[in-house]
Amino acid sequence: MTDPKRHNHYIGGEWVAATAYSANINPSDLSDVIGEYAQADAAQVQTAIEAARAAFPAWSTSGIQARSDALDQVGSEILARKQELGTLLAREEGKTLPEAIGEVSRAGNIFKFFAGECLRLSGDYLPSVRPGVHVEVTREALGVVGLITPWNFPIAIPAWKIAPALAYGNCVVFKPADLVPGCAWALAEIISRAGFPAGVFNLVMGSGRVVGDAIVNSPKVDGVSFTGSVGVGRQIAISCVSRQAKVQLEMGGKNPQVILDDADLKQAVELAVQSAFYSTGQRCTASSRLIVTAGIHDTFVEAMAERMRSIKVGHALQAGVDIGPVVSRAQLDQDLGYIDIARNEGARLVAGGSLVTCDTEGYFLAPALFADSTANMRISREEVFGPVANIIKVADYEAALAMANDTEFGLSAGIATTSLKYANHFKRHSQAGMVMVNLPTAGVDYHVPFGGRKGSSYGSREQGRYAQEFYTVVKTSYIGS
Fold first, then answer.
1. What are the boundaries of each domain within the chain?
2. What is the 3-state secondary structure (H, E, C) of 370-400?
């Protein structure tokens, strides 16, 4: 049996070997080794940072057409290879193949969007309050940015950080999640052939304790954009603020999906299933709190249990599968732990919650739904990050809104209703960065801002034209006659 192909770092325009490599294992089939991926040490991270620093002066002042062309080339190749890259994504992360292909398409479109943003840079030319003086307000690149991404969207989240960083003239040191280096390496290989000068983009793979810490604490990194856990995000914020580096954080969520008495039952059930369980519930925008008013509650619980019986769990590449495996053994243990916690706290298991046996050995779990839960249960307050959701019964809309906002997080919130009055009131009074009306809480567009409030996010928004708030700095110039 031949050894799996080894995949190296990309530093300063060259593929660089490491002293250690880590196997990338398919969670749908633990016998499937996708490849071995380099593990950087702190010295290699510093080399990447130095390469980015050296490339920054020329890249940040380079012509916008060249930037646009390079980004467009990346986007075009991603889209042309969406079946291949989607298969890779499904193998290493566990999303079903249709979802994986959809994520790859999103990544390609993100690069194409920011190829256009290169040509849409704008500023202001204003008269001064002083006669004979004019004022220019322009944006310039931030500098060297460290990008640290999670495992649950292994190509889309890297895309929505890398593309704007490069579009606005920054140089990148990119660290993907250690669980899913395959898509990151494939993306880096595409970028390496798109015409970016050496050092503008660098890929360093490895653990957060080594690679992440080296990026976050380097005085030569001007900003860090991180998506991941709350605990790690808060430590990154402390480190960056202490040395006055810019920081952008996307962290946890405990997103509410409100179901009102007047909701269309079939629609409400479907959006709740998609919000809570698709992508194996491994989305920061997933809705794990289903807040249901009294008049529809019993019918909704029964309809959800019936709908969940038709959900097929299995190998991510198998046709007809609705939900793939949990990403890793550690995450599966966490999910099972929360199922036990919910039971012990007195919640009633309505459906699922057991391991699923398939033709291959993998981390397969039937989505779990609990009812008879209360707001103070851990299952109602802590992010599980798996296919585990609970239903909370409330009296009316006012109680539902209060319950929806009763959380330390504030990323996404949804409401199912046929009432324009309640829909509009919820949009205004929901304490979330994104609000969905009669739509799943998970599922957002790439050309509009993404981000939350409270403990979910810190710093400026990601995606769309709002990305410039993080990746650029504002300069004000005064011109006398």
1. 6-251+456-480, 255-437
2. EECCCCCCHHHHCCCCCCEEEEEEECCHHHH
